[in-house]
Design a protein that fits this description.
Belongs to the DedA family. The protein has helices at about 1-10, 15-25, 30-45, 50-80, 90-105, 105-110, 120-125, 130-155, 160-170, 170-205. The chain has about 210 residues and is mostly helical.
Amino acid sequence: MEWIIHLFEQYGYMVLFGGLFAESLAIPFPGELAMAISGHMSTLGSFHLLQIILYSYIGAIVGTTVTYIIGYRMGTPFFEKYGKYVLLNPARIAKITGWFDRYGTKLILICYFVPGLRHFTGYVSGVLRINVRTFFIYNYIGGLAWVIVYVMIGRLVGSKIEQFLHLISQYSLAAILVAAAVLVLVVYLKRRKKSAVPRVKAEVRQED
């Protein structure tokens, strides 16, 4: 924690932009901890809350946009050869692809909150050629929510940031399962609604 504070003292808000940009590329950086610390520092007058959110958000979404473009243009063969450098091997691509098949593109909304997923979602979304507009909308909304949540955690819990984040990580699996269940329910209801429309139309024609 001390080393991050030292970085803030030297480089200010650019730590948030650069760190979250790097983390989005799957380069190790404790983004959530950095945002929480900066949130706490905003209560001490060291940083301005809105600037913290702005620099964090821009760093995160620029990074995920870059990874989406890389995935879109390079495709699976590129990651089969070079994916090991960002810990994205074919098995991991297949696993994340399976999640997209199961939960749909709305998975992008919650990926920031899932450790081990947010770092690769941009790459895999590009490889799968997910619609650009869809990716940007879900990615940018999810990114903003993620940034605000962790910055506000820092403001609320103060010096007990590390303990609180550890507690969150312990219950992250439960949160992921709940979010996944919600996504499955949404997808099921949408598909049921779509299938019901032709059936109703067919029944109307038969009555006519």
